[in-house]
Task: structure prediction
Amino acid sequence: MLRKRRVLSYLLERRLKGRLHFTLLDPDKVTPREAAELAVLAGKAGSDSILVGGSLGVYEPQLSEVVESIKKACSLPVILFPGNINGLTPKADAVLFMVLLNSDDPYYLSGVQVQAAPLVASMGLEPIPSTYIIVGHGGAAGFIGRARPIPYERHEIIAAHVLAGAFTGSSIIYLEAGSGAPRPVPPEAVALSRKLLDKAGFKETLIVVGGGVRDPSTARDLARAGADALVTGTIVEEDPEKLAPLVEAFKSA
Ligand code: 1GP
Result:
């Protein structure tokens, strides 16, 4: 049976108490042992969940081994962040069940979701209804996902995508500048999105922001603009000791 809304409820309840931080680990870049160590570090730094996924090079059994290793080492929920159909494993707690809203490729709009749905059900994974929106640089996710990245300065187009995601039922709207992007999603676009969501009565919809966030002041700006959750990946792979101050800045802003 699907563990209906267990992880989503956990996120929404925690959000009532404060902002959320997710640490992203890419199974193509870390060994199972490193993943476990980084997940423990992330938990201590204040992360609320571990996302596992990547755009390229994710396959079985390496994905399952990474998730299993994280689950043994820490108690945070593990949420899959799949780049394609290969990004699923029953070892995780939940999956961001995403539509890449600004993709030009039907595969990322409906094809992979139809292929994945029966697998998610039989694996007993909790599907978290999510909309994925690629902004600006876009990184590997934008290129592989055949997105038409929304220009950084077109805040109203970004916000229109956010509203469309919420209106079609997503609990999570993920604004993505791309892993390692030279510039993150602009705080102004987050602020406009939050304002329009609230005005439309979608106060519970979580705005998740990720890609290119490397320092506390950027994290603080995104928090003050209205981001509910921040995702960071590169920083924990490259400079793990920088994670705690960044999470603290995001949560305390
Ligand atoms: C990528 O948003 C995430 O999908 C994290 O990006 O690696 O730049 O932190 P970074």
About this structure: Residues 24, 141, 176, 179-181, 210-213, 231-235 surround SN-glycerol-1-phosphate (CB under 6 Å).
